[in-house]
Amino acid sequence: MSNYNNEEKKNHVIDYGTYIFVWLGLLALTSLTVTVAGIHLGNYTLIVGLLIALTKASLVIAIFMHIKVEDPIFKVFIGIVLLTLLAIFILTFIDYSFR
Amino acid sequence: MELNNPVSTNNNQHVHRDDVGARIGMWLFLFTELLLFGGMFLVYAVYRMKYPDQFHLSAMEMNTTIGTLNTIILLTSSLTMVLSIAAIQKKNKFLSVVFVSTTLILGFMFLIDKYFEWSHEIHNGNYPGSEVLLNKKNGEILFFGLYYAMTGLHGLHVIIGMIVLSFMLVFLLRDKITFDNYVKLENAGLYWHLVDIIWIFLFPLFYLIQ
User: Fold this and answer.
1) I need a surface site. Which of A64, A98, B130, B170 has the fewest CB within 10 A?
2) Are the C-beta atoms of B86 and A15 separated by less than 8 Å?
3) Using the beta-carbon criterion (under 8 Å), do A45 and B190 form an inter-chain contact?
4) What is the mean pLDDT of the segment spanning B50-60?
C-alpha cells in the first residue's frame, strides 16, 4: 500500500522553471566564491569557500536529487552518513592534534 | 507471460516494481562513494593543516579560470540531467533525449578542459615522480599528489557517468525508459549529481587558495 502512496508522491512533477532557478542560484554562488577568494581574508577564505560549497551541495541534493520531495527515510539515511563522515573527521583531527 | 498478455500495458501496474527501493539502493551505493572520496578529503585536510604555506604556494600554480569554467560546465550538466527526467515525466521523449545528449556533451567538454589543464601542469614538470616536483618541498609534492589523485578519481567518475548515460540514451530511444518507468534515468541522474557535488568541494580546495 505504502508503495502506491510513494508512486503518487513521486508524480508531483517539479517544473522546469524551478530547476533553472536553482541552476542560476548555483552559478551565482560560484561567482561569489570566486570573488571572495580574490579578497584577502586570511584564514576565513577557506571557511567561506567551504560554506558556499556546502550551500551549493545542499541545493543540488535537495532539488536536483529530489530529496525535498522524496520519502523522509532518505533524509534519515543521508543524515546518518554525514554524521559518520563528520565523526571520522573529528576523531582523526583529535588524534592528529594530540600526537 | 508476455505472450499471453496482449494488453500488457494495462497489466504493468500489477507487475511488482519498487522504484523507491531502487532509489534507496542507488543512494546506498552513493554513500560508499562518499566515503571513498571522504577519505581523500581527510588526507587533504590533515596535510593542508600540516603544510599550509606550501599548499598555498602550489595552489598559486593552479589555473582558476579553467577550474571555474569546469565548475560552470558541471553545474550546467546537472541542470540538463535533471531536466531530462522532468521531460520524460511530462511524456516528452524527444526533449529528454536532447537533454541527456547535452549532458553527455557537457561531460565531454569537462574532460577536454581537464586534458588541457593536466597537459599544462605536466608540461611545467609538475607530475608525480618528476624531477621538478621531487626537488620541491614535502607539502608541494603532497599537494600535487593529492591534486592528481583526487581530480583523477573524479575524472574517472565523469567517464563512468558518461558511459552510464550513454546506456540511458539507448534505453530512452528504445522505449525502455518511459514516462511511467524512468527509475533507471533517475538513478543515473543521482550518480551524475554526486559527481557534480564532489567537484563543488574540489573546486575551492584546489583552485581557490589565494
Assistant:
1) A98
2) yes
3) no
4) 90
